[in-house]
């Protein structure tokens, strides 16, 4: 199901047919560096993640992480969406673009549209974001979206320290 469309991109729900793309994205160099190893290494793992994680979020919360697709070529280039985390007070935005598509403004284009969708269609007043302190590009994008650094947090007591933006 299509969620929204920009001049160059389409944001839509993931289906199990997107499993190979998801393996590629979640094992890309930038994903591993800035998000970490999420243990989605095979098509089977990706299909389970899509059904039990992504699609479950769509039905439970009415939102989730969606696939970012090039509007003209129909090629998947990344993901963007909203996450409901028990350890955060606010819904947060997340995004990831395959390395070969970075630097073209796609992440900002889809994240800005997702923020508008979240506020005006879903009625989410406050949107948070979290990132690693060394993710300079992500922090710049968050600031361009109008978010600002608040404090360092941990999602789990023994988890890595992350920066919270609101």
How would you describe this protein?
It is built from five helices and eight strands, in the order ββαααβββαβαββ. The chain is globular, with a radius of gyration of 15 Å. The protein starts with a strand and ends with a strand. The chain has 166 residues and is an alpha+beta fold. The longest helix is centred in the first third of the chain and has 19 residues, at 43-61. The protein has a single domain (2-165), classed as Aminopeptidase (3-Layer(aba) Sandwich), CATH 3.40.630. 29% of the residues are buried.
Please give a quick description of this structure.
Helices cover 34% and strands 27% of the residues. It is an alpha+beta fold and 166 residues long. Strands 1-2-3-4-5-6-8-7 form an eight-stranded mixed sheet, sandwiched between helices.
Relevant terms:
alpha+beta, 8 strands, Aminopeptidase, 166 residues, single chain, globular, eight-stranded mixed β-sheet, 34% helix
Low-pLDDT residue spans: none
Largest sheet: 8 strands, mixed
End-to-end separation? 29 Å
Please bin the fraction of helical residues: 25-40%
CATH-defined architecture: 3-Layer(aba) Sandwich
Shape: globular
The ordered string of helix (H) and strand (E) elements is EEHHHEEEHEHEE
**What's the number of structural domains?**
1
The overall average pLDDT, rounded, is 97
Count of discrete alpha- or pi-helical segments spanning 4 or more residues: 5
CATH superfamily: Gcn5-related N-acetyltransferase (GNAT)
Structural class by sheet pairing and helices: alpha+beta
- Count of strand segments: 8
Rg, nearest Å? 15 Å
Strand content: 25-35%
What is the CATH topology classification name?
Answer: Aminopeptidase
Q: For the record, what CATH class applies?
A: Alpha Beta
> Strand arrangement, largest sheet?
1-2-3-4-5-6-8-7
